[in-house]
Amino acid sequence: MHKLLVICGPTATGKTKLAASLAKKFDGELISADSRQVYRGSDLETNKERPDVPIWLYDVAEQAQQFSVSHWVKLAREAIADIGKRRKLPIVVGGTGFYIRALLNPFETINMPPDKTLRAKNLTLAELQKMIHRGDMNDSDWNNPRRLIRKIETKKLKKRKHTNIYDYFAIGLTAPTQALYKRIEEGLERRKRLGMRETGVNEHVIARKQLTWFKKQPNIRWFDITEPDLVRQVTKKVSAWYTTSRRNEY
Hints:
Elements: E1 2-8, H1 15-26, E2 28-32, E3 55-56, H2 69-85, E4 89-94, H3 97-104, H4 116-120, H5 125-130, H6 139-142, H7 145-154, E5 166-174, H8 177-193, H9 203-215, E6 220-224, H10 230-247
Helix pairs in contact: 2-3
């Protein structure tokens, strides 16, 4: 079973910097889990850091290209296998919780292709709603044609049991709200000085949504980045996990 370290949490918490530090200590390589950083270009707008350790899944799609969670999971699995084959530690780092959850706990439809015949019909919302029982769908999903189509495509899908293929250890980084907002603003100002255009997104809102998402996920060890000995705390925990898991291989 592949060993996998995960560093997650909201924007501006220093995930990549910490992950790079751990990669140097534990002979690892990084895998970006960021839904904006997969696209080429817009490095400053997406805060695409370039650490001095190998990092995978930057710049793997063109801006106009459709890129889904299933695409990312496929590439991430390939990267993990490659890194593990070389006896190095894969470290997934990023703030796109949907990507990380799909990697660690694959959902039923992740590899299911779209029904091209159904999609070519360009059915109206009302027509789509007649094709499926609403069940527990919320108002947003029930009135979203794209989500209705996906629901119709998967309604006959047989349940499959997924087993976790990774021995993973997940670290979550967080901070008090005001401290987090201050880091976000400082980061924006730094990137503006470097020539960043407007991002078109409210990074405060993104951070809140990310934190809400990750807090609902199980098996994440949380650390406050304002603690002065953060790196020592995290390194100690990772070392205990990694040493034990590697010992169990033999």
